[in-house]
Predict the structure.
Amino acid sequence: MATGQDLLRRSHPAADEDPDRLLAAAGEAEKPRRAKRVASLDIFRGLTVAMMILVDGAGGEWPVIGHAPWNGCNLADFVMPFFLFIVGMAIPLSLKRIPNRLLAVRRVVVRTLKLLFWGIILQGG
């Protein structure tokens, strides 16, 4: 039975020169590829979460960052639109990696139902 090095030598004539290099390259090729993330979107998401924590914790003490009355707009009023923007950007980026459109729609529907279920359960409704 042929070993991994024998197979590499047969497929690559340069394997006789440095078999360890080719084995390392073969091992790297077998690793699953990680999806590339959009750093700016991750940073914006982190800043929005930090803003949400700040507004929730200090909004009562500093009126500038608390929720505004009906006739105004403060920092707290931007948290939800920022999250909606992040979701609007993240969905197309994640769905473009799924080649089958029906499978992509199915995943979106299942995830939506899971989020609704847990939201209702955690809110006590």
